[in-house]
Input
Amino acid sequence: MEVFYTLLVKLIPLYLIILLGFIASKKLKAQKETISAILIYIIAPVVIFAGTSQAELNLAILSLPLVFFLTCCLFCFIFYYFGKYFYPDDSTRNILAFTAGTGNTGYFGLPVTLMLFGEQAFSIAVLAILGFILYENTLGFFITARGHHTASEALMKVIKLPTIYAFLLGILVNYLQLDLGLVVQSTVDLFKGAYSVLGMMIIGMGLAGVSLSYFDKKFLGLSFFAKFIIWPLFIFGIILLDRSYLNFFNEEIYEVMLLMSIVPLAANTVALATELKVQPEKAAIAVMLSTMFALIFIPLVSSIAF
Output
């Protein structure tokens, strides 16, 4: 239970940041549309470049983005297909599919990784998170954009996203062993902090304009089922398979993989839904409730597993 209480206390500041986002929207009239665009087009690419260029690369760690990217795509396709039975003529189907395929691995996953496993697991977590971000900015973005855009328009939006190019540039810099210098490194560290803070604040900002009329029990139930039941069971199955037969990953990677599977719904859901105008109110409610649920769920599962 010591792990449970330690994590519980350390997660509370993240919830205070959500509250600040709510206050900023209500009292300062801060616009979530502006913040979401800054996150997607400026801050996220810098963070991804930093993580990719600095990580210690080997075959097992390099495979993590692919493992999580394919898992994200699988769940996205599954919930997009079955979503037509719940939302046949509603763009909620699109945001449900996006939500089912990802999680709050950046704003929650990285801080919790540091709390539980320290700096040695940070690079592993960054590479794992890349799989989620690549999904969010390719298939996830495409499926969500299809709620209000044609296939060609959605594809053009994907091509224009800078995160993909930041990832490729980071791999190149890492491979060539280029020294970016102290000034660049310190500047990138500032972006890492902004990524977490603004990402959590936008949840509160999204809730500021939400009324109970946007509460959707079906959407909430389906998204919770995907995130807190299907995801952990699937990743746990991969771990059991590898541990019993393949022996490709090590225990440290297992820990990061399982942790990435139990984080709440992605805060980027609100940013993307706002940017593409696809049910941002429903997304904000679901993300907030899952974030509240995760305050207990993550310490509980972590205390059992780790």
User: Anything to note?
Assistant: The longest helix spans residues 217-246. Residues 182 and 188 are 10 Å apart (CA to CA). The chain has a mean pLDDT of 84.
